[in-house]
Amino acid sequence: MAHDITVGLRAPYDAPGGAEALARFAALVDATSIDRVCVGDHVTFKGGRGFDGLVNATALAVLSRRATVQTAVYLLPLRHPVLVARQVASLAALAPGRLEFGVGIGGEDPAETRACGIDPATRGRRMDEALTVLRPLLAGGEVTMSGDFFSLDRVRVRPAPAPAVPIVIGGRSDAALRRVALHGDGWLGLWVSARRYAEATEQISRYASDAGREVARWRHGMHVWCAFGTAAARARLAAAMEDFYQTPFGKFERYCPCGTPDEIAAGLLPYVEAGCRSFNLIPLADSQEEAIEGTEAVRAMLRGAARAAERDTNDVEELS
After folding, report:
1. Quick one: residue 47, left, alpha or beta (phi over 0 = left, psi -120 to 50 = alpha)?
2. Are the beta carbons of 123 and 112 closer than 8 angstroms?
3. Residue partners of 239: CB distance under 8 A and separation at least 6
4. Fewer beta carbons under 10 A from the terminal one: N or C of the chain?
5. Which of 139, 205, 129, 201 is nearest to 167 (CA)?
6. pLDDT tens, position by position, 163-213
7. Is residue 134 within 8 Å of residue 85, measured between CB atoms?
8. pLDDT digits (tens, 9 = 90+) for 223-268
9. Chain-centre distance for alpha carbon 227
10. How many Cβ atoms from other residues are within 10 Å of residue 229's Cβ?
11. How far is the C-alpha of 249 from the C-alpha of 241, rounded, in Å?
């Protein structure tokens, strides 16, 4: 349905101005219909860059009056899950009902994982084990386990967040989709086609059903780099992504719409048709105001297109 399409954007993590600039960003977003702000997470990425996802999420949750804050994604295998559970519970208490905890295993920079004392080859298994600890702790349960990476004896984290904090999980591999099916409330796709998005969400449902797990409402979504502006927008996006990932832009280009809000919305419509109802934009623009205004315009266009599709479907049903 059109009204259930939500659109967010990533908060700036490297803009000058510190807390004052972040407060201005939060106020600008609050003045729009944008549903969500998201933050990334890295410890020491590609030569030392980084930004702590939960610290940034906490700042935004305090500064914003209404927006949902999502970590997209927090590198859970690099941390101890009990400490993370306490951090998430504390943040959820500051902004009840406005936190979505997105997690992933990372991997674009194995040196980052090694710098945290973690063997990169164990990221997936550490993630699975961490989720078996984190999820029950956030639900108010008591955890006792002796695993490959964590040993716990009657550990609790109280009070449990109320309402519960949804956990969405990123990743494109089959192992990641199985992880969502077993431990997640939704999947966060990145650099996948609309067709692959549909296939992946269907796989998650099958894996969950096979495991005897029922999820009333999945919180699947897409994370999308994009650029607002003229013909120079694509070149600006290519330079930014190549600088950050140190990988040729050609690897990402077909997943990264550029141009006017109309053109970016048109690039996302196939995902709406594939069932996606949640989008995070990582927008580049000439100004912060343009990025925020463009994101709000994309939201309106996606909702409008979905409403038009619903009317067409209803007209066909009435004629049949």
Report:
1. left
2. no
3. none
4. C
5. 139
6. 999 999 999 999 999 999 999 999 999 999 999 999 999 999 999 999 999
7. yes
8. 999 999 988 999 999 999 999 999 999 999 999 999 999 999 999 9
9. 18
10. 20
11. 7
Domains of the chain: 2-319 (3.20.20.30)
Amino acid at position 151, single letter: S
Q: Do you find a cis peptide bond into 143, omega within 30 degrees of 0?
A: no
Name every residue whose Cβ is closer than 8 Å to that of residue 55 and which is 6 or more positions away in sequence: none
Residue 221 near residue 186 (C-beta atoms within 8 A)? yes
**pLDDT tens track for 265-292:** 999 999 999 999 999 999 999 999 999 9
Strands 221-228 and 186-190: parallel
DSSP letter for 173, please.
Answer: S
Strands 42-45 and 49-51: antiparallel
- Which helix or strand (DSSP H or E) is residue 66 part of? none
Spatial contact of 165 and 99, defined as CB atoms under 8 Å apart: yes
Q: Can you tell me the distance from the alpha carbon of 309 to that of 316, in angstroms, rounded to the nearest whole number?
A: 11
Dihedral angle, C-alpha 201, 207, 209, 214, nearest 10 ° = -60
Give me the amino acid identity at 204: I
Residue 161 DSSP class: P
Q: Quick check: 35 and 308 in contact, CB under 8 A?
A: no
Q: Cα–Cα distance between 187 and 166 in angstroms, integer?
A: 11
Residue 132's nearest CA partner among 115, 114, 118, 151 is 151
